[in-house]
Design goal:
The protein contains 11 helices and 16 strands. It has helices at about 20-35, 50-60, 75-85, 135-150, 165-175, 190-195, 200-205, 225-240, 250-255, 275-285, 290, and strands at about 5-10, 40-45, 45-50, 65-70, 90-95, 95-100, 100-105, 105, 110-115, 130, 160-165, 180-185, 205-210, 215, 220, 265. The strands form 4 sheets. Strands 1, 2, 3, 4, 5, 15 and 16 form a 7-stranded mixed beta sheet that branches. It has a 5-stranded mixed beta sheet with strand order 11-10-12-9-13. It has a two-stranded antiparallel sheet with strand order 6-7. Helix 1 packs antiparallel against helix 9 (about 250-255) and helix 2 (about 50-60) packs parallel to helix 3 (about 75-85).
Length: about 300
C-alpha cells in the first residue's frame, strides 16, 4: 500500500530564485525526499501558497488517502500553526552557517547606509525604516522587537515605515538611500553584494545590530501518526546529511534555502524553540492576523 503525502511551500522561501526556477527546485527536493522515504511513499505535486493560505491548508486535517501534509515553513508561520493545531509538528530544521558557526539557528539584523549618519540603533528614532513582509520572522518580527528594546516603536517611532516586500527589496531601498534603516536576515548584505552592479554593498551598508539566535526554517508535518512523523524526519536527514554538503539533497536545498549544511532532526520530546517567537508578539500588540497580513 502506498502512503501519500502532500507538500507545500511559499513563493518567497528564497530571495534568489522565483517562479519556474523555484518550482523546479522544490520539485527536485520532493523527488529526493520521496526517494529517501522509499517505494512505499508518494509525494504529490508540490503546492505553492502564500503563507496565510499555506497555514490554513496545513492546519486542516489530512483527508482521503493523504496520510500527512508536509510544509516548508518560515519560523513564525510554524509557531502560529502549531499553536492552533498541535498535530502540526516540526520534524527537522535546516542548518545555517553564520561565519564559521553552523547550526539550527540564524539571526536578524538592522543596518543602514554609511552616509546616513546613524551609528547605533537608538539614533534611528524619527528616521525611516524598510521591513520586508509582516509575515517574516527576520524581515519584520524580530527586528521590530530589537527596535522596541531600544525604546523605538517599530511603527510609530519612524517618520516613514515601508514594507518593501522582501529582504532583497529592503536592502536595495537602503542601498539607494530611499530609506534610512533596513531589517533582514544575517546574510542580506552579502546577498546584495553578490548581485551584479552591487559589489560595494558590503562596504556601503553597515550593520547596526544582530539579534539573538532565531530557530531556523522548519519542515513540519500534520499527522496524528508518530511513526510517520519519525519516518519523514529520518528521511530528511538521510537526504541532506550535515557532513555531506555536496550531496544531491544539500545541493537541492541550497538552490532555494541558500544553505548546504543539512537537516537536523527535532526530537518529539524537545522543547519547542519556536514558541518563544510568539512571546515577541505580545509586547508589540500584534495579533496573528497582523503577522499574517498580506501586502
Amino acid at each position: 500500500m502506498t502512503t501519500r503525502l502532500s507538500l507545500s511551500y511559499y513563493p518567497w522561501i528564497t530571495q534568489s530564485i522565483s517562479g519556474v526556477k523555484l518550482e523546479q527546485a522544490i520539485w527536485e527536493f520532493a523527488r529526493l525526499l520521496q526517494e529517501a522515504l522509499g517505494n512505499a511513499f508518494q509525494i504529490d505535486a508540490p503546492k505553492v501558497m502564500e503563507i496565510p493560505d499555506q497555514l490554513t491548508d496545513l492546519k486542516a486535517k489530512p483527508a482521503g488517502d493523504v496520510a500527512g501534509k508536509i510544509g516548508l515553513l518560515n519560523p513564525i508561520g510554524y509557531a502560529l500553526a502549531h499553536k492552533d493545531v498541535p498535530d502540526v509538528k516540526a520534524v527537522a530544521v535546516v542548518r545555517r552557517r553564520i561565519g564559521t558557526e553552523v547550526g539550527p539557528t540564524y539571526k536578524a539584523q538592522l543596518y543602514t547606509h554609511r552616509d546616513i549618519g546613524i551609528n547605533e540603533v537608538k539614533q534611528a528614532r524619527g528616521r525611516s525604516v524598510a521591513f520586508g513582509s509582516p509575515q517574516s520572522t527576520s524581515n519584520f518580527l524580530v527586528p521590530a522587537m530589537m527596535l522596541w528594546k531600544q525604546a523605538i516603536h517599530p511603527l510609530n517611532g519612524f517618520t516613514r515605515v515601508q514594507f518593501a516586500g522582501g529582504h532583497d527589496k529592503a536592502a536595495l531601498a537602503v542601498y539607494k538611500r530611499e530609506l534610512d534603516v533596513g531589517a533582514g536576515h544575517d546574510g542580506v548584505i552579502s546577498d546584495l553584494a553578490g548581485k551584479p552592479g552591487f559589489g560595494d554593498a558590503a562596504q556601503v551598508l553597515v550593520r547596526l545590530a544582530f539579534s539573538d539566535p532565531i530557530p531556523s526554517d522548519p519542515v513540519a508535518i500534520h499527522t496524528s501518526d508518530p511513526k510517520l512523523r519519525d519516518q519523514v524526519a529520518q528521511a530528511l536527514v538521510r537526504m541532506a546529511k550535515p557532513d555531506e554538503p555536496n550531496s544531491d539533497g544539500n545541493q537541492a536545498i541550497q538552490r532555494f534555502w541558500g544553505t548546504k549544511e543539512g537537516f537536523e532532526a527535532i526530537s518529539p520530546n524537545a522543547p519547542d524553540a519556536y514558541a518563544s517567537l510568539l512571546d515577541l508578539m505580545t509586547p508589540l500588540g500584534l495579533r496573528a492576523d497582523d503577522v499574517l497580513r498580506k501586502i
